[in-house]
Design brief:
The complex is a heterodimer of chains A (about 200) and B (about 80).
Chain A (H helix, E strand, L loop, with lengths): L2 H9 L3 H23 L2 H17 L10 H19 L21 H7 L4 H6 L2 H14 L2 H12 L4 H7 L4 H27 L5
Helix pairs in contact in A: 1-2, 2-3, 2-4, 2-8, 3-4, 7-10, 8-10, 9-10
Chain B lengths: L4 H13 L4 H13 L1 H19 L7 H19 L2
Helix pairs in contact in B: 1-3, 2-3
Classes of the chains: A mainly alpha (about 200), B mainly alpha (about 80).
């Protein structure tokens, strides 16, 4: 039975059909929500609430997107509601990540301190680097992690991300970019701690 | 210099996707050739994305999996009465 038939059956009240739709999508939706929330507890709550909400709204599913995408968009809304209540901090404006920002006018010195990806990559096992980068993504404020995950993990277009997060395209772009810039900052201090010296 | 770095930076994510017009693309590439700062931004973005995509996705915790079907069935019963 294909997805369309399962949806029709579920909408007519067949729980087994609905359970099959959930079964086929739960792992993928969980992986998405876990990335989005960066913690297991919130991810579990959101997944559970989203699937319950899917039951409430099952009649509204029109099949424009796949059932999995529909579930993910419900989960995204749940996450947005949860994180709207939590205190969020803002990342610095893009300009502040540029060399020379906040310096004493000594551009030369700042550019020496700039983090170079080539160095840590040769110093670290790639597994460890991957863990470090993923850990840093988890530390981002929600609104930045959200756009980063939607854009680069879920591979949605900037326009689509803007629509889903109810932002203008311009501010979406700015959030998307500030995520890796902040990561570079975070990683740079991680490596400094580890090696006891500035990364250059 | 035609543009300041912040203006280039706004386009770097589009640049990586290849979704910009050839003229701007050439301009950015020329700038990347001479601006260490913007080059590092592009590398950072590219590498972060690659490393994040390579990571294994988290799997659904067994405890949640166990109770999920029961919870859904209960809500289903409330809605459809069966
Ligand atoms: Zn530049």
């Amino acid at each position: 039975m294909d997805e369309k038939q399962l949806v029709a059956k579920a909408q007519a009240g067949d729980f087994e059909a609905f359970a099959k739709l959930i079964e086929a999508n739960k792992q993928k939706v969980y992986a998405f929500v876990r990335r989005l929330t960066a913690n297991t507890e919130d991810a579990e709550d959101i997944l559970q609430d989203s699937f319950l909400k899917a039951i409430d709204k099952i009649d509204q599913f029109r099949g424009e997107a796949s059932f999995g995408t529909w579930l993910s968009s419900i989960a995204l809304n749940e996450a947005r509601v949860l994180y709207a209540r939590k205190k969020q901090f803002d990342l610095k404006p893009i300009e502040d990540y540029l060399p020379g920002a906040g310096s004493h006018g000594d551009d030369q010195q700042d550019s020496i301190r700039l983090f170079d990806w080539q160095d840590p990559q040769s110093q670290l096992e790639s597994d460890e680097l991957r863990r470090t980068v993923n850990g840093a993504v988890d530390k981002l404020p929600y609104k930045y992690r959200e756009v980063f995950v939607l854009r680069y993990i879920e591979e949605l277009s900037v326009k689509e991300v803007a629509r889903l997060t109810k932002q203008t395209v311009a501010s979406t772009k700015s959030r998307i970019l500030r995520a890796p810039l902040a990561l570079r900052d975070m990683l740079s201090s991680t490596f400094e701690e580890r090696y006891g010296k500035k990364v250059s | 210099m035609a543009r300041k770095c912040p203006e280039y930076i706004e386009n770097l994510s589009d640049y990586l996707d290849g979704g910009i017009d050839p003229e701007l693309c050439a301009e950015i590439e020329a700038h990347l050739g001479e601006c260490n700062n913007c080059r590092i931004m592009v590398d950072t973005l590219r590498q972060t994305v690659t490393l994040c995509r390579e990571g294994k996705p988290e799997t659904l915790p067994a405890s949640l999996e166990k109770k999920l079907t029961g919870l859904l069935r209960e809500r289903w019963r409330q809605k459809f009465g069966k």
